Amino acid sequence: MAATGTETKDLDSHHKNRLVQLSNPHVANMKEDVLYHFSLSTSTHDFPAMFGDVKFVCVGGSPSRMLTFIKYVAKELGLSHPGDEYPNICSGTDRYAMYKVGPVLSVSHGMGIPSIAIMLHELIKLLFHAGCSNVTVIRIGTSGGIGLEPGSVVITRQAMDACFNPEFEHIVLGKRVVRSTDLDEGLAQELLHCSTDLSEFTTVVGNTMCTLDFYEGQGRLDGALCTYTEKDKQAYLQAAHAAGIRNIEMESSVFAAMCSACGLRAAVVCVTLLDRLLGDQISSPHEVLAEYQQRPQRLVGHFIKKSLAPA
Amino acid sequence: MAATGTETKDLDSHHKNRLVQLSNPHVANMKEDVLYHFSLSTSTHDFPAMFGDVKFVCVGGSPSRMLTFIKYVAKELGLSHPGDEYPNICSGTDRYAMYKVGPVLSVSHGMGIPSIAIMLHELIKLLFHAGCSNVTVIRIGTSGGIGLEPGSVVITRQAMDACFNPEFEHIVLGKRVVRSTDLDEGLAQELLHCSTDLSEFTTVVGNTMCTLDFYEGQGRLDGALCTYTEKDKQAYLQAAHAAGIRNIEMESSVFAAMCSACGLRAAVVCVTLLDRLLGDQISSPHEVLAEYQQRPQRLVGHFIKKSLAPA
To answer: What is the pLDDT of residue A6?
Structure first.
C-alpha cells in the first residue's frame, strides 16, 4: 500500500504543470479562434477565466446524461447548493452541450467517431487557449458487451478497430494515416481500484472495439441492411472475444488517438447494456438501462473525489 | 415543356406503390422491433397509424433546425394553424429529434457518417413497418464550399469519399465492403428547377465530398492536430475541385448508399457556409449563417409543395 502511494506521488509530480499542448503549429498564429461547434470564440469569451481551473473533463454521447453527471459530481464534491442550476455553456448551438462545476467539465459528443472528433478538436483547443494543465479526460459511455453480464462496466485497456487492430486509421489530404490508440495504463488501474472501493457492480479492464456503424459494423442482424447469418455473426464476435475485446462502442479509438497525440491522460469507462453473444436489441426496461448508465458516472465521480482529496 | 411533363408522369407512375423495402431478411421474423435510438417500438407504437402516410422525409444534422423546418413546411403546405405545436416524436431519447406534419417527416441525424447511419437504419425500418410507399428522402444540410460564393446551395450529383471515389467503404464482420453512392438524377434536376422557380440564391449541381472528420479530414489548418501546410491544403482542395467536387460535408456517402440499397429516391441539398479555398473558420455573423441555413429548407419546401400540387 505504501509503495502504491509513492508511485502515485511520482506520477503526480510527473504530471505537475503539464500544459495542454496542440499538435498544430498554425493555431498560435491565429488572431481569433472560433470554436464553431461550441459557439465559443477567443474574441468573445475569456477562456482562461472560464476554464483555466479545469482538471477533469468527462465526455459522453448524450447531452442530458452529461447534465445529470455534472449535477451528480457537484453533489459528490460538496460544490452543490440548493437551487443551483448548471447552464449549458454552449447554449448558442445544439451540436454539443457543456457544463462545469469547480475543476470538472462535462461535455456531450454525440454518436460516432466523426462527431466526437469535432468535439475533441475544439475541446483540446479550448483547454490550450485557457492555459489548462494536468488535465485528465475520461469518456463515460454505453456499449454492447461480449460475454459479460449486462450492467458490467468495462475500463478500456486498448481501443481496437473492427479488424481487432489497436489503431485509428483516417484519411488526411487523401492519404491513409494510422495513429496508435494508447490509453493511460496507470489511470485504468486507478479507476479499477475505485470500482473495488465502491463494490457496487462488476468492473473489468478489457479491450474495446470501436466501429463506424452500430448495425452491420457491429455484426447486428436487426438493421435495415444485413447480408450475413447468425452463424457468421457469432464467429465474428467470438473472434473479437478471443482478441481480448469485452465491449463494442463507437468513439474510443479516435478519443484515445487524439488525447494521446496531445499529451492528455485519458481513459474510457463504458457500461454494457446487453450481451451481444445473446442478442442485438436493447430491450431492457427503461429503469434498468437508466441505472446501468449511472454506473460509469458513479465510478468516475468517485475517482474525481478521491483524486481531489487532500493526501 | 410538354415533354418534360410527360416524363414526370412516367416517373410518377414508375414510383406508384413502390413500397419501402429492407435489405435484410431477418427483420421479418422479429416479433418486436425496438428502434432504440428513436425510443420507439413496434410493440408500443402503431407505426402504420403514426407514419403510414409519410411521402417525404427530410433529414438534417441539428435538432432545432429540423423543428424550424417542420414549422416552415406546415405553413408552406397550408397545414399550420395558430398555436399549433410540433411535439418531438422521439421525446423518450435525446439521440435524435423527429417531427411530422401531413406527409412530411423531419428527423435530425447529428454529425458524421456513423450518426446518420444509425438514424437511417432505424428510419428505413420505421418506414417499412409503417407500410410506406413512394417515399422521397432529402438531406438538407450545411457544408464547406469549394470555389463558390458562401451561401450558394449545392445539389449533390455524386457523393465521393476523401480520395474522390464515388464509393462508401465500410467494415462488415471485419471485411471491407464497398457500396455505390448513387443518387436520383431526376430528383436532382427537379430540385434544380425548383431553385430556378424561387430565384433567390445560387444553386448548382455538383459532386460532394463526404469525410470522416471536419478538421484534418477536410484539410483544415485550424484543428488541434495538423501536420501539413497551407500549400498542401490548397493542392488537395484544388484536386477536389478538378474532380467536380463543389462542397464538403460528413454524411452524404452513407446516406446515398443506404437509400439506394433500400430503393428510396434520395437527394442531398446543402448550403455552403464558407469558401474553403479562402479559409477554414466559419466566422460569418450569426444572422448571416442563420439565413444561409434556411436556403435548403426553402428549396425543399418549395419542391414538396410543388410535388403535392394537383396536376
So the answer is: 41
pLDDT at B311: 72
Say yes or no: A233 and A246 in one domain.
Answer: yes
> Residue for cell digits 496531445?
A262
Q: Is residue B13 part of a domain?
A: no
Chain A residues near residue B67 by CB distance under 8 angstroms: none
Helix (H) or strand (E) holding A39: none
CB contact under 8 A, B282 and A94: no
Q: Which residues contact B200 (CB under 8 A, 6 or more apart)?
A: B295, B298
Query: Which residues 6+ apart lie within 8 Å of B113 measured at CB?
Result: A112, A114, A212, B210, B212, B250, B251, B253, B254
| Backbone phi and psi for residue A41, each to the nearest 5 degrees, phi listed first | -145, 145
- Percent of chain B at pLDDT above 90? 92
Q: What is the DSSP string of A234-272?
A: HHHHHHHHHTTEEEEESSHHHHHHHHHHTT-EEEEEEEE
What is the pTM assigned to this prediction?
Answer: 0.94
Chain B CB contacts of A258 below 8 Å = 224-225
pLDDT mean over A169-175: 97
Residue A211 and residue A181 share a domain: yes
> Structural domain of residue A168, as residue ranges?
138-311
> What are the Cα distances from residue B4, in Å, to A287, B40, B215, B302?
56, 41, 43, 19
Band of pLDDT at residue B16, cut at 50, 70 and 90: low
Q: Beta strand pairing status for A153-160 and A203-210?
A: parallel
Distance, first Cα to last Cα, chain A: 14
Q: Let me know if residue A277 belongs to a domain.
A: yes
The three-point CA angle A283-A289-A292 to 5° equals: 140
d(CA A17, CA A55): 11
Same domain, A157 and A303: yes
State pLDDT tens for residues B119-175: 999 999 999 999 999 999 999 999 999 999 999 999 999 999 999 999 999 999 999
Is residue A126 classed as helix, strand or coil in its secondary structure? helix
Task: Give the ipTM of the model, two decimals please.
Answer: 0.94
Q: What is the CATH number of the domain that holds B239?
A: 3.40.50.1580
**Cα atoms found within 13 Å of the Cα of residue B115, Cβ hemisphere only:** 33
B112 known ligand binder: no
- Average pLDDT of the segment spanning A95-120: 98
Alpha-carbon distance A38 to nearest alpha carbon in chain B (angstroms): 12
Confirm if A40 and A126 have CB atoms less than 8 A apart.
yes
Residue A213 contacts residue A128 (beta carbons within 8 Å): no
Share of residues in chain B with pLDDT > 70 (%): 95
β pairing state of B136-145 and B245-249: antiparallel
| Cβ neighbourhood burial of B10 (10 Å; 0-12, 13-18, 19+) | exposed
The pLDDT tens digits for B205-250 are 999 999 999 999 999 999 999 999 999 999 999 999 999 999 999 9
Q: Which of B27, B162, B212 lies closest to A113 in CB terms? A: B212
